[in-house]
Amino acid sequence: MTPDLAARVALLDRLYTRYDGFLAGIDGLACREGCAACCTADVVLTSLEAHALITRLGPAQREGLEAALARGSTAEGFQPRVTTNGLADCCARGEAPPPETAPQGTGRCLLLRDERCPAYALRPFGCRCFVSRRTCRTTGCAEVDDVVLTVNTVFLQVLEHLDRPGCQGNFATLLALMSRPGPAAAYAAGHLDGHAWGLLPNRPLTILMVPPEHRGALAPLLGDLRRLLAG
Ligand code: SF4
Ligand code: SF4
Q: Which residue segment(s) compose the domain that 149 sits in?
């Protein structure tokens, strides 16, 4: 049975806390609040994260979001064609996933103001998990450990599994949709359909994408996640 919406938001918070704890255990990450080269229009999030973000914005943040949505295009950022669990299922079947158009990294996140995130504490997993050992602005790209990429994939799989029925897709697109009263109510009632907006339905987690060389390192974290999800 899928937990109710309030329980899923509470679980989302615990997943964020666990992930932030994982990052805190890594020495030498260059990331900090106010470093915003990674704040592009290509961030992807789930509908549960969009719901949690929108419903927790303060009045000024909410006004800023509405102004940004009124100003900005919601069509310029990365729109994935397969979810993380969809990709895992393709791999398990030995099938090639649908080809993706690579993120361009050119557009800026619609929330960003003066190179700062006005909702940093509420930012979705797609922002939290974009980390680097060197400052991207000087190197031109992120430098990420392979094991971090595997942990990121596991969290993306769990977040997708948790947000069912729900969907995922581009940050600006999903925020524009769920800022509307009708879709917000439809999501709360468990029947948001994001198909017409190019959003993808979330799928259950059937197989974790953890390569053999990372299984030992990830064992404690996977145990924590199992306990967390079991309630
Ligand atoms: S990923 Fe790069 S741009 Fe983003 S916070 Fe870290 S160092 Fe800064
Ligand atoms: S939500 Fe905040 S942290 Fe994430 S990309 Fe936008 S401005 Fe950056």
A: 5-230
